[in-house]
Design brief:
alpha/beta; ten-stranded mixed sheet; 11 helices
């Protein structure tokens, strides 16, 4: 049994997944991991054209005669572009210039398979390249998170490690309440004198317990006044914010542990091949209200300026609707970046509806790895080239 199998076995008893990084040499400069990164995965391939809508383009209505959003319903961002009407909760962020919209995001020669494309996004590979570790995992290997942190990252509501796979010291809270409850079952054991393989298993359990101790609410748990929206995504946001709040409480009490450097949430259901309008409306409403609650909670904790929230999805949808009042797998999509340090506005390349390829797909405007490079360099202060394997243009999204 290899080391990775041991890690999975140790985590399985708690209903979580844990991955331990290999030893990494010290970096020349220390990343600012006190600046939190929150990733929100829009799983299934979000329909970008009905999210950030080119409402002034005549071709939009022609391509989507039954599922297109009427011009008088769009929440206008400028004279050409607007948001889906269910995304009203994002407007305070937009008006405060704390929300950036990057349009036309994908990569050269996009792959339209769910499995392969999300693998490309998670590993930051080219479409014809196969990497075995996530881009955040490589970042944390090359630039380790301080040992005073509870963990490198937390994944909430999913067993998939995504960009943290194969190298990050991360915890997946598949069932957050079960994790907090079952972590009490792991007790320290003297590992001196045992064989190396058993010692490793016991050390994994110790790491899980230490992380759990630092993430578990304390008697002095910070009580947030923020009201969170109902539903699964609202609960995930609430869990994430409580983890942040409790780490702040522990810091004030001089208890070791500073939370985590990254948190990943997943909102499922964006594979809208049929009957898209009502389903997509509900998903965008959940996302927008969850984002608004996240901002309110982070402002309450005085963490909004030191937190960056970023969406990603495996691909967008085709420009034209299909025969089932839905959309099929496509190429590009817009993505949202929010936070108190964000330079709000529209970035990237607007959808060129008059330049569709032979399959009815939009041309790529921004390589997603430029977004990753911007996060690494302008948010954490990390040289992105060793992590992403080449240099990508940075976007002027952040106040640095």
């Amino acid at each position: 049994m290899n080391r990775r199998h041991f890690l999975r076995a140790g985590a399985a008893s708690l209903g979580i997944a844990a991955l331990r990084p290999a030893l990494a040499s010290a970096a020349n400069r220390s990343p600012d991991y006190a600046r939190l990164l929150i990733l929100v995965e829009l799983k299934g391939g979000n329909d970008g054209l009905n999210t950030v809508i080119p409402y002034a383009a005549p071709r939009y209505a022609q391509l989507r005669p039954t599922i297109g959003i009427a011009r008088d319903q769009v929440i206008a961002l400028d004279g050409q572009t607007g948001l889906h009407p269910s995304m009203q909760a994002l407007m305070p962020l937009w008006q405060q210039r704390e929300l950036a919209v990057v349009q036309g995001v994908s990569y050269p020669s996009p792959n339209l398979s769910h499995f392969r494309s999300i693998e490309i996004w998670n590993t930051a590979s080219a479409s014809n390249q196969y990497l075995d570790s996530g881009w955040l995992a490589r970042s944390f290997q090359q630039h380790p998170v301080p040992q005073s942190f509870a963990s490198d990252a937390v994944v909430i509501g999913s067993a998939e490690m995504g960009p943290l796979a194969n190298g990050a010291h991360a915890i997946a809270l598949i069932n957050p309440q079960q994790f907090l409850r079952d972590s009490n079952l792991v007790h320290p054991v003297d590992i001196s004198g045992v064989n190396p393989e058993l010692a490793h298993v016991l050390e994994v359990e110790h790491e899980i317990q230490r992380a759990a101790d630092r993430l578990r609410p304390t008697n002095g748990q910070a009580m947030l006044r923020t009201s969170f929206p109902p539903g699964n995504f609202g609960n995930l946001v609430k869990t994430a914010m409580q983890i942040v709040a409790d780490s702040e409480t522990r810091t004030e009490q001089r208890v070791p542990g500073k939370g985590v450097a990254a948190i990943r949430l997943t909102l499922n259901g964006f594979d809208t091949h049929h009957d898209q309008p009502a389903r997509h409306q509900s998903l965008l409403k959940q996302f927008s209200e969850g984002m608004a609650a996240m901002r309110e909670a982070l402002v309450e904790m005085n963490r909004w300026n030191s937190t960056l929230v970023m969406t990603y999805s495996e691909f967008g949808r085709r420009a034209g609707e299909n025969d089932s009042r839905g959309t099929d797998h496509g190429t590009v999509a817009p993505h949202f970046i929010a936070g108190g340090a964000v330079r709000g506005g529209l970035y990237g390349v607007p959808p060129a509806l008059d330049r569709l390829d032979g399959n009815g797909n939009l041309p790529v405007g921004v390589d997603f790895r430029s977004v990753y490079a911007t996060v690494l360099e302008h948010w954490w202060g990390i040289d992105s080239r060793p992590v992403l394997n080449q240099r990508f243009p940075l976007l002027p999204l952040l106040r640095v």
